[in-house]
Amino acid sequence: MPTLVWPLLLVLVGVGVFLGWRRLSRQLGRISADIGLIATVNPSLRLDATGPPPVRALATAVNQLADRYQREQSDVAARIAAANADLERERTRLAVLMAELNVAVLVCTGEGRILLYNGAARQLLATREAGGATEMGLGRSVFTILDASLVNYALERLARHDGGSHPVATMYHGRLLRAQIAPVRVGDDDASGFVVTLEDMTRLAETAQARQDLISSMTTATRSAVGNIRAAVENVLSFPDMTTEQRSLFLGVISEEATGLANRLSQALDVAPAGEDSWLVADLQADDLLEAMARGLRDLGAQVSVTPPAEDLWVNADGFALQRVVCTWAERLREEQDADALGLRITDSGRLLALDLTWSGTPVDTPTLQEWTIKDDPSAADVITRHGGELWSGTDAELGGAYIRILLPRAQGAVVASDRFGRADRDWLSGYDFSLLTPSGADVEWADRPLNELSYTVFDTETTGLYPNDGDEIISLGAVRIVNGRLLRQETFDQFIDPQRSIPQASIEVHGITPDDVAGKPTIGEVLPSFAAYAADTVLVGHNVAFDLQFLKHKRQFADGLLRQPALDTLLLAVVAYPEEERHTLEVMATKLGVGVTDRHSALGDALVTGEVLLKLLQVLADKGIHTLAQARAAAEDTYRTQVSEAVYSRQPE
Q: Catalytic residue at 601?
């Protein structure tokens, strides 16, 4: 027996020593990781001073150092704040000045990213997408508002004259906008950025048109009134012996016609005071002009086909007035020739450009065309005159039909816009689990970019359940964008979604969203294109983002490539950054990183918390030598394949 007891005791002692060593190793590893967090992102974090006496002593000493470090950090922050006070005052003055400007102002980078905008711009461009987001926002592309070729055109025109600004016109959601574009140069860099000022000219254009209509109608009415007055005066002078009753009759005619003339003149001055309309004429891209005209014709119920110009053509024209004239002609063609199928094109005619309204029918003879131009829309003649006065109708053998043609002046010194703002298509593989986060091919443009220079869309969903394959649907989608290391809380995306199915009570108890909350809301098919526009050119981020992406994967719009960008998972990044932690839920990581948790289990609330967590994690990853998107994705994939168990991904919805 004694010979068996001693080996058994040795084994027990060895096991105890091993377990104690492993526990101590884990404690030291956790202490090491927590020290890193204290030094980088959360100075208020303190170590758990429990365990063996040496561990308690170490934790106590570290906590004392952390207290001193936090105090010194607060002192440094106070000194920095004092040193930046003057700069902040200058920024405040700029912000106040921008806020008070009545003109919409956008400041953009050379690549077209919006760096700054004022309240007037937000109000002018207030067309909202599903989710409450606008098409404009910090870090977003200005080319969702202005066509890239329009900006290229203006900047290259300005490059020839070395300064100033250049006006261009464009249509934006049915409104005529006049844009002044000026380059911003820092040193010798010609692509530092540009400033755009925008004015809504729609009402002014309509007022000018109303004045032209009124003047034209007054011409006819005045001719008749003057004739009546002249006839009455001649009768009074020619027949001095007429009776008092007859004289009163003629004087009444004179008085009535004179009063009518005065009233019409007063009306003209009230509706539209006299002024120059030269501001209505601006450089327009031919494609943009054709698009505006096609929209007007479709509003009349016509079927419209547009033939794009063979090259990049620019006209100097009043697009709003031309649209009205073409719509007037279209109405008469539909009445007299049943021409419901119309075509639009602009072709190069040498010194001038030819704008054609085409149809399958017979040409309009000159007297009829003049009648349409003068009688149906009296101001049309003025429009034609302002644009060169060339107008006729003819037959197009190639078309097999007819056309009405107006010649338009070219924009002076037009240039062919370069493709400096072009975007490369990206094709990202869609799947489940980690494949949802992985692009189909190596994209150097994304992969090698530093994490701190990327823009992110941090999003979260609430759902009817956990299994999209079994019919569960998204009922809420919330998101916030991160640009230049800033969480843009003022530019969020928040939308309830009608799942077109019931919501189980168990799910309601988790997120609190009831059938009444989603009744009548847009469907996911309506919301997803708006979300894709909101998230354009950013990296998608979520906590256990594969759960959310698997729901989007089932939607046709996702398959159509609306969301092509790569994705990052803060759950996996948290494991990379803090492997010693046993749990990496959003609440645990928020607490570790010093992020406040509010509005939990709402899509937008969770997205905001996840965004704050991401910003902290990026600092920790940088200390671990992870600086680019490719490095972060490689580390996350390694974590997924080697450290994260299946249970991590079978979570309740975050």
A: yes
